Amino acid sequence: QVQLVESGGGLVQAGGSLRLSCTASGRTFSNYAMAWFRQVPGKEREVVARISRSGSITYYEDSVKGRFTISRDNAKNTMYLQMSSLKPDDTALYYCARGGTSIDNTKYYYWGQGTQVTVSS
Fold first, then answer.
1. 46-51/58-60 β-pairing
2. CA of 43: how far to CAs of 40, 58, 66, in Å?
């Protein structure tokens, strides 16, 4: 069973930065594309950023382009989300998820429990 554990969330002022981490159990982390999602109560979960198996291909939701950077360290079974210039609208519960072998596969099969990010104005 794959387990994903997020960390790094917290309370930050607008304009500040946070780095989220997602650590996966198992020895096949590098075989799968990964993604960060976020969800606000009452709204659907939305994808924030996606990354390919090697980390060479990344996609971002329009509202975070230029502010967020997704990366991964396959040797550490860990994915990151560096968030800068944070805005109150970025406040959400952030989840990491494991997808399929291709970044173009938009189905995600394993999810973490989430880490809360709160941006104060």
1. antiparallel
2. 5, 24, 24
Edge-to-edge, what's the strand order for the sheet holding 68-73?
A: 4-7, 18-24, 78-83, 68-73
- Cα 24 to Cα 21, 88, 91, 100, 107: the distances in Å are 10, 29, 24, 15, 18
Which residues are CB-contacts of 22 (< 8 A; sequence separation ≥ 6)? 4, 5, 6, 7, 34, 36, 78, 79, 80, 81, 96, 112
Taking residue 30's Cβ as centre, other Cβ atoms within 10 Å add up to 14
65 secondary structure, DSSP code: T
Residue with tokens 């020895």: 27
Give pLDDT, residue 1. Answer: 83
Show Cβ contacts of residue 66 under 8 Å, excluding neighbours closer than 6 positions.
Answer: none
Which tokens in the block code for residue 21?
């981490």
| pLDDT tens readout for residues 51-70 | 999 999 999 999 999 999 99
Tokens of residue 108, six digits: 């995600």
